[in-house]
Write a structure and sequence with these properties.
about 30% helix; alpha/beta; single chain; two-stranded parallel ribbon
Length: about 110
């Protein structure tokens, strides 16, 4: 009897808020089951960084987008003196020139 109750509880929690996420046919969690914060941070794909900046002249910490011209993700870094979009891929010398807070604001890939 306990397993039947557990299964019924499990079934009632699938795909609902504060429940258990399900997977779609491709093995991914459907967008409808993701929290808004997980979706809103991705701003989309842009041909150039200029196009990204035009579309989003300002953003919030953790916002990111893909720029095809650089084949990389760009993140909003609000820890900079002047907040701006920055390429996730960065040279070691440029990375070392950043403050600890500036480094922590973006998941940089040092090249």
């Amino acid at each position: 009897m306990a397993s039947a109750l557990s299964y019924e509880l499990f079934q009632s929690k699938q795909g609902v808020a504060d429940g258990i996420a399900t997977l779609d046919g491709t093995g991914k969690v459907p967008v409808s089951q993701l929290p808004a914060a997980a979706i809103e941070t991705y701003k989309g794909e842009f041909a150039t960084s200029e196009a990204l900046t035009t579309a989003y002249p300002s953003a919030s910490l953790a916002d990111y987008a893909y720029v095809t011209a650089t084949s990389s993700y760009w993140y909003w870094n609000d820890a900079l003196g002047t907040p701006d979009w920055v390429n996730q891929q960065i040279t070691e010398s440029a990375y070392l020139a950043l403050s600890v807070a500036e480094r922590a604001a973006v998941p940089y890939i040092v090249t």
